[in-house]
Amino acid sequence: MRSHPRRAHLQRARRRAVPHAARRVRPRTASGTHYHTKNELARALVWRVVRAGIRVQFILFDNWYAAHHNLRCFAHSHLAWVTRLKSTTRVRFQGHTLTVKQLAATVATANYHYYAQLGARARSFAVELFGRPIKLTVVKHDSHPERARTKYLATSELSLSTAEHVRGYRRRWPGEVFFRDAKQLLGLGRAQARQPQAVLRHIVLVCVAYVGLQLLKPLRPQPHLSVSQSKKALLPLRLLLTAKGAADLVRLTTTGQFEPVEVETLWEPIRTRLGGLELPKHLGVP
User: Fold this and answer.
1) Which residues contact 192 (CB under 8 A, 6 or more apart)?
2) Are both 105 and 78 inside the same structural domain?
3) Is the pTM of this model over 0.90?
4) Rounded distance, CA 213 to CA 181, Å?
5) Which of 65, 69, 107 is nearest to 85 (CA)?
6) What is the DSSP string of 127-154?
7) What is the SS3 assignment for 259?
8) Where are any strands of DSSP class E within the chain?
9) 146, 96, 157, 97: which is closest to 124 by C-alpha?
10) What is the residue-level pLDDT of the chain in tens, covering all 286 positions?
11) What residues make up the domain containing 210?
12) Residue 54 three-state SS
């Protein structure tokens, strides 16, 4: 049986060339505009912030946006950034090229300094990323709610201390929690409209609903209820309307019956958190 290595080589070359050719043709969306990747959109948004004259201390982002083009764009705009790197990211350290995971393994975990205020061990290294000097901070045995006990953080601001670097990165976590809850519980990504104004209204209503769920959380010594728990607590609430326009607030029980709910009980968390706010004592329909 004869083999055809040259023919097989040409076939493989043609198969490899198809994806490269497809990348050169920028696809278009349903509205006719060119499709933009997340990284391209991120650079455009940062450019708008710079053009608007908004002063920022740092740009915080996760490892998805730690790409060469993004970091180069931020450097040209003279913007400092703090991010997280993948364990396979290659950096230059003392004349050697190695991954951040390999670099972290060169120092025993026992030699990482323990920061009680961070609840983790951390150690910083001066390295180069894409030819630019940065500060790499390796965090181990991290007790922060964000997943992964070991994290590789990077920043362009070399003057930051190790603790400031870790705290700076953690400042983005509330934003991540908001987008997670807004997408999973409040339908942020379920807008069917294509008009920009309609999409903007949808986003505004989601933000209003999120704030409402936060304000209506029951008051407790340690109010750590999630948005999901708050939403489940409010879903059984109903308004019973009478012919005269009166409205009674009730809760639908698991047995299918309605039990009355005092309006004061509902408003108490809002009144306590927003002191001086006048709230109605009764519900009514205009």
Assistant:
1) none
2) yes
3) no
4) 11
5) 65
6) EEETTEEEEEEEEES--SSSS-SSEEEE
7) strand
8) 59-61, 81-85, 90-93, 96-99, 113-115, 120-129, 132-140, 151-155, 237-241, 247-252, 258-260
9) 157
10) 455 677 777 777 777 776 655 556 666 666 667 778 899 999 999 999 999 999 888 899 999 999 999 999 999 999 999 999 999 999 999 999 999 999 999 999 999 999 999 999 999 999 999 999 999 999 999 999 888 899 999 999 999 999 999 999 999 998 888 898 899 888 888 888 878 889 899 999 999 888 877 777 665 555 566 777 777 777 777 777 777 767 777 778 878 888 877 766 666 666 666 666 565 555 554 4
11) 173-235
12) coil
Token look-up 């903007």 returns 200
Q: Are residues 185 and 100 in the same domain?
A: no
Distance CA 219, CA 223 (A): 6
- Those residues with Cβ within 8 angstroms of residue 68's Cβ, 6 or more apart along the chain or in another chain: 130
* Total length of the chain: 286
Total domains present in the chain = 3
167 domain-assigned: yes
